[in-house]
Amino acid sequence: MLALSGKIVTFDPQRPVIEEGVLYVGDGTIAAVSDRRDQAPAGFADTKPIDLDGVLYPGLIDLHSHILYNLRTLWAPGRAEPYTSHNQWPDADTYSQEITAPARVWSKSPAAREVLAYAEAKAIAGGTTAIQGAPGTTRPYEGFLVRNVDNETFGTGKDRVSQSALTLEPEDLERRAEKMRDGDTFVYHLAEGTSPKLLDEFADVAEAGCLRERLVAIHGTALGGEQFGRWSAHPGSLVWSPFSNLWLYRATTDVAGAHAAGIRVCLGSDWGPSGSKNVLGELKVADLWNRQHLDRAFSDRQLCEMVTANPADALGWEGRTGRLRPGLEADVLVVEDRTEDPYRNLIESTERDVRLVLVGGKARFGRTPLMRAAAAEAIEPIPQAGRGRSISLAGGPDAMSWRSVVETLEAVRADPQAALAAADRARARGQEPFELIPDMPAGRLDRAADMSNVVLPPLDTFRHDAAFFHALERDRAPILDGLLDGLSSYYRSR
Predict the structure, then answer these.
(1) Where are the domains of the chain?
(2) Which CATH number fits domain 2-58+334-392: 3.40.1050.10, 2.30.40.10, 2.60.40.1220, 1.20.1250.20?
(3) pTM (whole model) above 0.85
(4) Mean predicted confidence (pLDDT) in 236-250
């Protein structure tokens, strides 16, 4: 049992902020949320509160990613003109060799589990406790550190979320519509780009009966008032990934129009090649765009809801996560208390401000003294996240240490062919290795067919650092054309 003391931002309309509160955690769930002056609830009389010296929020939910590809940093498309459709950039000269081929190696190498562990650690370093976009696997997998939206069952054994990053045929959409009528959630990449031709994808979705409350549409950059108006009869949710949109298309979704039509807006970081490093970083992109281009259509609280309450509600998880209230899973993010307004505080927080992250009541990442105080199991230093940070991989299906995760990945990077050969030998012996199934377009397969000279890029850093912002400069990112010049200001003097 744990008692965590600090300012608590609940996202519960009954009591949204408790200036001096205590969050009580027992058996992985929130037992009580109280004022510090109140009597401790039953069973916690002898539990001394841990003074976190920070602000407690629900753990962040990243509703759009592609985990397999998050070991790398930004990919430069090598052109100045923006793309107009998601069908174009996979045909870029460098895409298959720089993105598809490495993903194939990671997927089939003996380091497949380590790939997931590293990508999830990169996410949790930014306060993420649940992430969408896990690759398919040859055997069941529910994650080491954070909840995988596509596989999470909360112990029920019932997976109620399906997804597709690829455009589906009408008959497939009709099957998804039937499942939504039974209460399932469908996460679907829809109309990504600016070409009017992409509206055909929306027409197919509408014709199949998928414009429902349980549809979670990712991107929707080609959609406008007419489409949002049609959806408003049974409004669902839209996932906004402004960084990736601007990086590839120099345009982003009309989220103000979607919101006006009653459609719930959530945030997603997308993936390493064209996205933020985590959804905490994407929150800053949303804030910057909201201030500079949307005339502050969204309040600070509404922006913060895009990574907490909104995605939980979109998934049908409102009784599980997304808020801090009794009975919900104890998925908790604690950051430095730097700004008086609690919502502005979250928006302006960076990876350096993350003090502690709990998933299901277990301390998984944070400052080492707080990890110890929260009784984290088998903590280890994690240099990739900065000095004084620790991680706990305890409880995963395989015993592994953070050191072994990094060493295994670096061994594959050093000799990809040897790793693939070792996996082939295991299959020849009749073993069934754990493998990943890529979920993104392969591009020009002929350009990735020769795996003898594949080069795996360096493992990405966990923070939005100088190298990241250098890649955003106008001469290096001509498609972006300086639209995010103000983003680095959130990270100065950190």
Answers:
(1) 2-58+334-392, 59-333+396-494
(2) 2.30.40.10
(3) yes
(4) 98
